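Appendix B. Raw example, untouched.
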Amino acid sequence: MPDLTPRALPQTIDDTLALLADADYVAGRALATVLFLSLRMRRPLFLEGEAGVGKTEIAKVLASALGRRLIRLQCYEGLDVSSAVYEWNYAAQMIEIRMEEAAGSVERDAMERNVFSEKYLIRRPVLEALSGEPGQAPVFLIDELDRTDEAFEAFLLEILSDYQVTVPELGTIRAAEPPIVVITTNRTREIHDALKRRCLYHWVDYPDAERELEIVYRKVPQANRRLSEEVVRFVQQLRGMDLFKAPGVAETIDWAGALTELDKVALDPETVSDTIGVLLKYQDDIARIEQGEGRRILDEVKSELSAAE
């Protein structure tokens, strides 16, 4: 069980950097600055970037570090109010109605008030996010917003404006304290400016080699140091190629972990070929690496590390 003892918000940018580092998230100062301002100003944080660069992880780390609940709304095409906000437990309501009828209750207004009460309300992520107590507001992750349609985006804009939602049968439910909102998008489509204006924005890019190596050291501490260096340099070179999908940081970590499970202490052509499916997820990209590009990159990596010694 995660520790849900609420902790104080960071008071400086350096505190924010330390908070992230304590949770093994290696962040640059620009990200720490916008995160600090988001917390201080109580503005949603809008994170944009390629898949696998660590956008979702920021919300998870933030919830863990601050001792808050993490409520995640995973977006997808066709997401509607009943899935995102609330719905009624219709089966339980029907049972209650049958029981009241069997008991001889015929007062329609009283029956309606009973079945449309909190007891039968199923809270979905949006409503859950508005239910935090002062000082204990949850971290509300709206993940991959670009997968939804513009109608849901407009609805979300209304929610983020006033942090309230209206349930016709119960009235308006307002947040006692606004949640800490983190919105992510992989930029498969543009998000409307009206929503972006309510947020603080940050582009999460691929890390440079130094930072990515530090990430691997933290996430896969059991990996051989030389192997970690070779993995990071290999991945950095791959990202410079015209691939259908460049590997993200998550894939780098997975690859280092997989190679460690195989007791590897360094890369070789056969190992790269056998495990490339951990790193790349499209056959055209894999075929290109296996047709000679992988060996070329590996030779360059080995040469660079030897020259640096």
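End of appendix B.
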